[in-house]
Amino acid sequence: MNIPFDIVKGRGPVIFDPIHTDAQVNQVREFVPEESVPYVGEALTILRKEVRLVLCSVAFLHLFILHLTSFLYLKHVCFVQYHKTGNLYFI
Known about the structure:
Blueprint: E1 5-8, E2 12-15, H1 22-27, H2 33-36, H3 38-85
Antiparallel strand pairs: 1-2
């Protein structure tokens, strides 16, 4: 954009040389992130891949725990049924 500025804590962005004239307005360029800050796009791409991997891992872990608790509950029910009646029939 060709507008030098800094971010000041507690104040926000501060433009070093504020725009006052038409000539200064004409010097302003369109902001194209891929040209000005390509590393931001690269960082976001890496971050998306990492988050996707973590989400897949969490989903797998959730399913594993869900199935494990279901199995343990069924095992408990069978154990109780067997010790009450001597068989595993639920009818």
